[in-house]
Design a protein that fits this description.
This protein is mainly alpha-helical. It has one helix spanning 9-36. It is built from 1 helix and no strands. Keywords: Membrane, Transmembrane, Transmembrane helix.
């Protein structure tokens, strides 16, 4: 068994916020690619 302490609430919250921002950035990049015509609208559901 490892002797590491479980993550604190602050560390867990920070990870969740980072994941939310990553998803937001990916969504905005995909939106920009569709608007500029790089990704055809037929590929987006």
């Amino acid at each position: 068994m490892s002797n590491e302490d479980p993550p604190t609430v602050g560390e867990h919250t920070r990870a969740a916020i980072n994941e939310d921002w990553a998803a937001t950035v990916v969504g905005l990049v995909l939106l920009a690619l569709v608007i500029t015509g790089v990704i055809p609208t037929g590929l987006v559901p």
